[in-house]
Specification:
The protein has about 325 residues and is α/β, with parallel strands linked by helices. It contains 11 helices and 11 strands.
Length: about 325
C-alpha cells in the first residue's frame, strides 16, 4: 500500500495508457478522452520515464505496444475496468429509474427523439437523461448507462451489439427544382448536390458514391457545402439540393413525402449503429426491450445479437 501511495500520481497516466493501448493511436485516444494529442503523448512519456522502459513504438500515424507495453496492458487494463465498474455501481442508486443514454446528434434528431414520446407514455416513471455528443465519450467517467454509436465494427462484439445498418442513397425534396427528370445516377451529375465537409468519412461523400456507380464525380464547386449531417438533411428538406442520406434516419421523411428518392438507384450499405448497455437496472432492460420493438416496427426483425442485450444486459 505504501508503494501505491507513492505511485498515486501515475493513476491518470495509467488511464491514458489504457485508452492508447486499446485504440493503438494517440490521436484516437485524445479524441476519446476529450484532450489534445500532446497531452496524451506527455502522459505516456512521463509514465515511460517513471518505469524506465518504452511502452510504445511510435509510427507515423499509429502506435504499437512493446513487450513491456503488452505486459502492462494485460495487468493494468482489467484492473482499471474493474475499478470503473465498482465506482459506477457505487454511484448508482438502488432502484433508480434515471437512465443516461448517449447518442450522436443525427441519431437523436432524426430517429430517437421522435420515438421517445412513445417511451415516456409506456414508462412514465423512467427519466431519460439524453447525452447528445458526436465525440466518443468515456462511458464510465460520464456515468453513461446506454450508448448508441455509428462506428465501424468494434473489437469487442461481446459488449457492442449491431442494431441498425445504415444504407445511403440520394434524397431530395419535392420543392427541389431539378434541371431534368431524375431517373438514374447519371442524372445527378448536373444537379445541385449537398456536400458534407469536415471529419466525415469518405464513404459518406458524393465522390465515393459516384465511383460506386461507375461514374466520374462532378466538381464540388457545383454544389453546396455543409459541415454537419443535420444541416445537410435540413437543407435537403428545404429544397436546396440533393443529399446523400438514407435508412434509418430519413425513413419517416420518405414515408410522409417530405423527401423523395430515385427508385432505380440501389441503396449503398454502410456501417452499423451499435449499442452497449452498462447497467443491470430494470429501467435499462426496459429501454433496450423498447428499443428492440421500435427497430422491429420500423425495419423488421431486429438482429439476434440485439435481442440478447435486454436479457441479460451486456456490460462493458
Amino acid at each position: 500500500m505504501a508503494n501505491l501511495r507513492k505511485d498515486a500520481h501515475l493513476l491518470r497516466h495509467l488511464v491514458t495508457f489504457e485508452v492508447a493501448s486499446r485504440s493503438q493511436s494517440f490521436t484516437r485516444a485524445a479524441e476519446e478522452m476529450g484532450v489534445t494529442r500532446v497531452a496524451v503523448s506527455r502522459h505516456i512519456a512521463d509514465l515511460e520515464a517513471n518505469l524506465g522502459k518504452k511502452l510504445f513504438v511510435r509510427g507515423h500515424r499509429d502506435v504499437t505496444l512493446t513487450a513491456a507495453g503488452v505486459a502492462l496492458k494485460d495487468s493494468v487494463n482489467p484492473a482499471l475496468k474493474q475499478i470503473a465498474e465498482a465506482l459506477a455501481q457505487q454511484r448508482a442508486e438502488v432502484g433508480s429509474t434515471r437512465l443516461s443514454v448517449t447518442v450522436t446528434s443525427a441519431f437523436a434528431t432524426y430517429w430517437l427523439m421522435p420515438r421517445l414520446v412513445n417511451f415516456a407514455a409506456h414508462y412514465p416513471d423512467t427519466e431519460i437523461n439524453l447525452v447528445v455528443s458526436d465525440r466518443y465519450l468515456d462511458l464510465a467517467a460520464e456515468s453513461i448507462d446506454i450508448a448508441i454509436r455509428y462506428i465501424p465494427e468494434p473489437d469487442d462484439l461481446e459488449t457492442w451489439h449491431p442494431i441498425l445498418q445504415e444504407t445511403i442513397f440520394p434524397v431530395f425534396s419535392p420543392k427541389y427544382r431539378a434541371r431534368k427528370a431524375l431517373t438514374c445516377a447519371a442524372d445527378l451529375r448536373h444537379e445541385s448536390l449537398l456536400y458534407l465537409s469536415g471529419r466525415y468519412r469518405v464513404e459518406a461523400r458524393w465522390q465515393h458514391w459516384f465511383q460506386t456507380q461507375g461514374l466520374s464525380p462532378p466538381k464540388e464547386q457545383s454544389g453546396v457545402q455543409v459541415n454537419t449531417y443535420n444541416n445537410m438533411l435540413q437543407a435537403a428538406i428545404e429544397g436546396h439540393g440533393v443529399a446523400l442520406a438514407g435508412h434509418p434516419l430519413v425513413d419517416r421523411y420518405l414515408a410522409d413525402g417530405s423527401l423523395l428518392k430515385i427508385d432505380s438507384i440501389e441503396p449503398l450499405a454502410r456501417d452499423h449503429y451499435y449499442l452497449t448497455c452498462r447497467s443491470q437496472s430494470d429501467s435499462a432492460k426496459m429501454f433496450c426491450a423498447w428499443l428492440a420493438e421500435q427497430i422491429s416496427d420500423s425495419s423488421g426483425t431486429p438482429p439476434e445479437s440485439f435481442k440478447q442485450t435486454s436479457d441479460p444486459i451486456a456490460t462493458n
